[in-house]
Predict the structure of NAD-dependent epimerase/dehydratase domain-containing protein.
Amino acid sequence: MDGSVPQDRRPIALVLGATGGIGGAVARALSARGYHVRAMHRAAGTVHGKSSGGSKAVAEWVVGDAMNRADVVSAASGASVIFHGVNPPGYRNWAKLVLPMIDNTVAAAQASGARILMPGTIYNYGPNAFPLLGETSPQNPQTVKGRIRVALEQRLEQAAGEGVAVILVRAGDFFGPGAGNSWFAQGLIKPGKPVKSVSLPGRPGRAHSWTYLPDMAETFVRLLERAQDLPAFARFHMRGHVDPDGYGMAQAIRRAVGNDRLPFKRFPWWMVPMLSPVVPVFRELLEMRYLWREEILLDNSRLLEVLGEEPQTALDEAVAATLRSLGCLAVVEASQPAMASPVAAG
């Protein structure tokens, strides 16, 4: 006997968004912990067996649309965990899609008895809460996306009061394998090409928080392992990698590509208003510009109380893995990077 759990007895985790960056990372982490990972996708037959996101970690694909409640409820049948990692593509149509999708996930959790895992963002906060954000910091967003995120969390908290357990982990800007729709991939470098320069979207001297997706996934599964000790609506912040002055991430990219003279350039914010009428994603980026004008840090003391440490991969290792996944570096290893030492409270 090898001690492994037979597949038909493994707990089931439904991952919504398994082909994306955070969904893929969570799918891999759950699979490594012995979960039977089920994923729902509108074109499940076309993604089965592909290497994008967490596809290789998915044991079962089902066809369905996150906007269709019956599909989500059916996909969650027998699941003890639902990871909600779906978002409108390209930052668009949040007002029409975000809240209906979370309502469908809540309905599925109510039907199956599953616990919801939800990645959070800092969109909920306005400048009055900066620079150090805690789980109970006032949420006074100044953007449409921020108000939608506040409403989303309110619905999750209401669901928790009605018997649906929720674990929400909030973090800074994402980077990592599969995170193509991120500031790292779309704002700092150009995916699919050797790195010739790095754009700097933030103000010099302002600290900025980054979170490596495999670290966030590991945080979710460690919290899940301690679920019996958590409140019904459990919120946590990750400190992540703190860029102390707006140049730290760019310097790490320099080290990853092996060029200490790689040029840094200011992000062309002046172009964004001009292009917004014809390039919808630029209009969305402009709305979130305030997050690059201010110093923003996340207080992870609550997370440290529960886990004792925050999972964190060494920055240079994480940046190199991200650049390889984006086609900016030659692939020199096939496995995911190993976890490095935990981070202490900052």
About this structure: The longest strand covers residues 36-41. Confidence is low (pLDDT under 50) at residues 1-5, 332-346. Residues 9-177+212-241+295-312 form a domain with the Rossmann fold fold (CATH 3.40.50.720).
